[in-house]
């Protein structure tokens, strides 16, 4: 979503590699099981797009920070990737997923390990879950440790910990709400689902990394507040676009089976918006059939589009991004910060499947 | 196990209460589900014996620290209690426990919550596990945050983070090994099981808190090394005594059903020692029956005692505590530190069921 300089990309990768190599080596010194845990943990934090570190660095530069003179920046940027990895590992565990990007995740690896050691299915469940709990703990701790020991001033560290503290708590609240919203017969209202997306993803993925970069660059409190509001809106729009991709996106857009959210009967704001239309009885029947296969998925897609819910979701993304651009303009942010937010907003718009 | 002054106990409780009240209030601001998570998280960190904070403070005083002039001490002490609470919550999740001290733990509370919201058994499992993952994350982060933001010098913070980093990694290695040792037909060797006890419990419960107190008091590297060796030995002895309690202890000693470890077919070093005797075939049959009820448990207890394994375990505790006292004497630790270690060793000896 953001073009960073080659130097910046290299420094982010370097900071992450140092942290991950260290984790791998130290785990290996504690025995064979620990070595396997270290490998799986490192693998889970490898191969992502590193969006969150890029946001930290982009915001830092947009507020006039000099990347040549901020040794703490890279550790803070890397910390946000590790925080993300921690949440993904624990989220996969909660969701019962055993793969990510087509290869076994921590749960999947340790399920296989249990079976290879003569365990049965119950042992595989147990060991997979145990390893995922622990891998997430290691990553969460490492993210925190990187910030606690980064070469920044005492007041920067204090401000970063306020942010990180919020990120951990808000994400936990969002993750829990996300699970609770799958329980019971009633579909939650649209605004509850959007609030959950904001808490679960937008805060730690957009708002907090942007704020971290800005505070390291010395942005004022007012500037940071405007940036955080815009970042939150962009994060919500990103998630809404993600729901559209999971529902209507092609295989190329989704990077997985098309209509996966329909197959999984996922309760997204898009579905909640459809429930508010007069077409809901037809849509509900179509959605109930969607898990049965591609033909039923295509039918559900048509019903959702015909109800106007798809169009309403696109409008909501557009409105949300307009509000993000508004926050940037109202607060008279530096020109580079306005450009950064506009770039992010455009990138989100470009993700909407047509 | 340790008698602290009323002032010290009050300060520890105060630091913990501040952290937990803060967590409760901030969680409540994020919605009803988050409020319930905050309550459950706080409850999971309440009501323990607060042994680990006491060890931090006792070591601090034993190395000449002045508790009236060390504002960071209490936060560091509190952090070790929260670290313990985090590990307990995640350990309960991994073990499938839904109660602790006779009341529902985080998993148990959220299982009930799912059912009350119209969920089925699968929803209860899902929500219980999700809440426990998140509660442990909140506690782990809070423990780390307390140390990251404690009013200590930069070099003290760096040293504390080396310690905390080891505590998190070593405990994870121990927890994973503990789970793996339940898998497969073969009983692991005694020394592997003792290593696991050291990693899973002794390090973060004894060695690290003692070392943290000593480093805040300005102990030398040699003194700290000797203290850590002794602390590790005491921690292992504590765990071996715990196994004896779980196997032979009365209801009063165990605070639960007598013979709970036998009922759960737990693979303890005690059992591994029994497997090294000529009586193993008889013991193995007795152990296989133990889960069936009190008469079978009493039979297994008699067979274990007759094999000499109980006696050997007591000897191993005595030997381990002797080595702890030896570390203290060899390093010429300050008199108060020698007394502290001797007090701890005696307290462990007194726990051995007779």
Automatic annotation (TrEMBL), chains A, B:
<keyword id="KW-0414">Isoprene biosynthesis</keyword>
<dbReference type="InterPro" id="IPR000092">
    <property type="entry name" value="Polyprenyl_synt"/>
</dbReference>
<protein>
    <submittedName>
        <fullName>Geranylgeranyl pyrophosphate synthase</fullName>
    </submittedName>
</protein>
<dbReference type="GO" id="GO:0046872">
    <property type="term" value="F:metal ion binding"/>
</dbReference>
<dbReference type="GO" id="GO:0008299">
    <property type="term" value="P:isoprenoid biosynthetic process"/>
</dbReference>
<dbReference type="Pfam" id="PF00348">
    <property type="entry name" value="polyprenyl_synt"/>
</dbReference>
<dbReference type="InterPro" id="IPR033749">
    <property type="entry name" value="Polyprenyl_synt_CS"/>
</dbReference>
<comment type="similarity">
    <text>Belongs to the FPP/GGPP synthase family.</text>
</comment>
<keyword id="KW-0808">Transferase</keyword>
<keyword id="KW-0460">Magnesium</keyword>
<keyword id="KW-0479">Metal-binding</keyword>
<dbReference type="InterPro" id="IPR008949">
    <property type="entry name" value="Isoprenoid_synthase_dom_sf"/>
</dbReference>
<dbReference type="GO" id="GO:0004659">
    <property type="term" value="F:prenyltransferase activity"/>
</dbReference>
